[in-house]
Amino acid sequence: MRLTRYFLPVLKENPAEAKIVSHRLMLRAGMIKQASAGIYSWLPMGLKVMQRIERIVHEEQARAGHLPVLMPTLQSADLWRESGRYDDYGEEMLRMQDRHGRDMLYTPTAEELITDIFRAHVSSYKDLPLTLYQIQWKFRDEIRPRFGVMRGREFYMKDGYNFDVDYEHALHAYNRHMVSYLRSYERMGLQAIPMRADSGPIGGEDTHEFLVLAETGESEVFYDSAITGLTLGDRDIDYTNWDQCALIAREWTEPYARTDETHDEALFNQVPEARRKVSRGIEVGQIFYFGTKYSDAMGASVVNDKGEQVPVHMGSHGIGVSRLLGAIIEASHDDNGIVWPEGVTPFHCGIVNLRQGDAGTDRVCEDLYAAMTAAGLEPLYDDREERAGAKFATMDLIGLPWRITVGPRGVKNGVVELTCRRTGESEELKPEMALARVKEIYSSV
Ligand code: 5CA
Is 343 within a domain? Predict the structure, then answer.
């Protein structure tokens, strides 16, 4: 993409309404625009990052054997009356009527609709296990929408639902989701810690929230610092392997890690003092096991291998896709702007032409741009007739992890400069070497 052809409405001034850095940077970098309280339009670069996040989620769900579906945002109240949640959900649910006076609502989550799909089509344990998920807009009429996409009223969420014949299978589904979530967050350059949580309006017996540590987080968290050293790395994961998923889930949930809602001071005090940490976190996902709560209420059952009719065991699992943009920025920025992790960056590499219109720099930039594109990477070429300082400021603000700078002096010596956004370190290289380095970096992302 050439910057002169792009729509990147950056703001010079800090918007007064933005109280936290991610909100400020998303507005300044022209990623979103508020449409009304807690409701945003997604501009090209914001949407691009969201799509990268979505892709990681889809890929990891596919690996785990989960199937994508898409359910409507507007739903009939009837199903929600069956489960009893139409009355229970309260003011957070946005309710409306259609022209015939039928009660409708904008979906805050989708347990009812998915259970309805299940009961219409599945009747035997032979069709299980089954996990269906979607990435779809949700609406919750939050009393105090704030911090931009972090606590919106309309937000984009991955919500998945597992159906299993008994508790043991459902427990594996729970562990499998935990592992797939850990892997998804890791690919986004984040460490999200699973913490024992409260189940709230979803209901249920077991639930973990995934929290990214950040001072601006809404939840107070208490944890054993031993957990921050854990990574999956390139561990080979077999999602059909119950023992392996259980082992990983145990590894991540054994160290003490809880939000204030479930915090237990006595248990916490058993952690060696030097490892006891109190901090804040952003909730980027939550998994629930709730047994037969919805299947009992809505009559979703299967015949098991003994020929008995049994209610199906369920869980639901959410990832805050739009919230993740804010969380990633909170975890990865500096005074000059965003620092995107390679896994979610909107463009892989910036190309900065220090003297637009100069035949030599233009040619090197054009060649780099073409070669990078041919290699399957997406560069953002700053081809504006602007001062070098302004170009660098824009690149730093929008946070591409790598930048290649092309100036007349370097071109004369046959070199360009490759700069890492995170460390600020630069290296002079031949253009083809710079390209090879960028290709290599992304080959393992
Ligand atoms: N049905 C379950 C799992 S699919 C569910 O709704 N879970 S949830 O309530 O925990 O939401 C899932 C994730 O959506 C949360 O972890 C959070 O990251 C995100 N989320 C929830 N409310 C908001 C909001 N108001 N703005 C942005 N993201 C939100």
Answer: no
Same domain for 354 and 299:
no
Mutate to test the pocket of ligand 1, among 157, 184, 198, 282 (most ligand atoms within 8 A of CB): 157
pLDDT at residue 205 greater than cutoff 90: no
* Per-residue confidence (pLDDT) for residue 86, from 0 to 100: 96
Domain CATH number, residue 411:
3.40.50.800
E-assigned strand segments in 111-244: 130-139, 154-164, 192-196, 206-213, 219-224
**Within a domain: residue 344?**
no
CA atoms within 13 A on the CB side of 260: 9
Residue with CA closest to ligand 1 atom 1: 109
Considering the domain architecture, whether residues 33 and 177 belong to the same structural domain is answered as: yes
From 318, 338, 358, the end of a domain falls on 338
Each residue of 245-303: pLDDT tens digit? Answer: 999 999 999 999 999 999 999 999 999 999 999 999 999 999 999 999 999 999 999 99
* Confidence at residue 200, expressed as pLDDT on a 0 to 100 scale: 73
Domain holding 421, by residue range, is: 349-443
| CA-closest candidate to residue 38, choices 143, 148, 169 | 148
If one residue of 40, 80, 94, 323 were mutated to test the ligand 1 pocket, choosing by the most ligand atoms within 8 A of its CB, it would be 323
- Is residue 176 lining ligand 1, measured as CB closer than 6 Å? no
Q: Ligand 1 centroid to 409 CA: how many Å?
A: 52
Number of domains making up the chain: 2
Residue with tokens 């944890």: 223
Do residue 144 and residue 103 come from a single domain? Answer: yes
- Find out whether the beta carbon of 38 lies less than 6 Å from any atom of ligand 1: no
Q: Is the CB of 152 under 6 A from ligand 1?
A: yes
What spacing in Å lies between the alpha carbon of 322 and ligand 1's midpoint? 10
DSSP summary character for residue 208: E
End position of a domain, from candidates 317, 338, 359: 338
Q: How many CB atoms lie within 10 A of CB 109?
A: 19
